[in-house]
Amino acid sequence: MASIAVSTTINDDDVEFLCQPDETLLDVLRNRLGLMGAKEGCGTGDCGACSAIMDGRVVCSCLVLGAEAQGRTIETIEGMADGGELHPLQRKFIEHAALQCGICTPGFLIAAKALLEVNPDPSETEIRFWLAGNLCRCTGYDKIVRAVQDAAREMRGETA
Amino acid sequence: MRYERPQTLEDAAALLAAADAPAFVLAGGTDLLVRMQNDNFEADLIVDIKSIAGMGDIVQSDAGFVIGAAVPCAALSEDAALVAAWPGVVEAANLIGSTQIQGRCTVAGNLCNASPAADSVPALVAADARVRIAGPNGTREAAVIDIPTGPGKTSLAKGEIIEAVLLPKRAAQAGDAYLRFIPRTEMDIAVVGVSVNLTLDAGGTVTSARVALGAVGPTVMLVDAAAEAIIGTSLDDAALDALAAACSAASTPIDDKRGTVAFRTKVAGVLARRAAQTAYTRAGGK
Fold it and tell me: For B64-191, where are the E strands, in sequence order?
């Protein structure tokens, strides 16, 4: 199969890569670009461990072809911290122990970031529905929900 | 396998028509990329239609709404005029998959995937939606109900692409609603899906109605007897009983691990009753 040349923007950087026509964006991120934060859990769009933001919408990168990234703007977990400064969601996940094994965590953080960008003050129900496409087999979700609520409070400028 | 991203519908249809081996249209990819993971999947060609002008647009006109084939379902709920006119269609489309899936999946894709349990399809059928189809011999229109012909099968000919889903202009005092049964609270496939679309007169009497069922037969069903049961009524208990009975009678479901024949048949009536009440309220009925 002939390789496809793709120009895209990932975490504010101009990126060019070659990929196969049937290669997923997840495989491109991990195997060609060394961005190993997005994980392959199911490979069929059920678990959300591969979540990335494409043109402002959170997507499963396992259900996007690498070739589709042409001309798009992509955000991954690697772009979430500001240099050495963690994003409030990242800090609150640590503070609330909202992770154990950590495989699902990049996906949860990306999906939660996308939520707070469109809804800075989500209810618990809204958080749970928004994150229903991210599966975690360790935490039971409560700590994740509390971490998102606490980060949202901080990002709105309210004290805990 | 080749990946092509044509700029025009004509080029896209020509690519598909010329393919010798299996060829697929790629819009949101939430069904296609899952199928591609399967070892038995074979494709010679993937035609990505997202670079074609208009595919990502929702356009409102005097005739109603034109929803481009590549509009993600999440965008439907962001269009206030569409939500106001066709709340049942939007709520059905927004039940498909997770947030991540919503960012990619399309109603045109939901229709072409031709699952009997597709959530948006009963709502489109109840809405009397049509599709504009581009093909090697030009453009044609068809009713949504004429697209699926069986599980995984459609009436689209080789080289044909659904270009847009067309929702009619909304009458005053009209409303629609979609309800499905799933054993979980979200992220599941309909065991039964029911959509009711109705119009009222000034006195609250139903003047026209369309009732569609999903997941209780090989394809979506438009149940005329269910519509007739509520036309001319103000949705009193007797009308709702007749509606429920008509929907149960029309159901020809399968037994599987998600629901038995008896359960699906019963639930089709229960959901029809509730969806009709919601549609009635949305239409301004009291």
Answer: 64-68, 130-135, 138-143, 148-150, 153-154, 161-168, 174-181
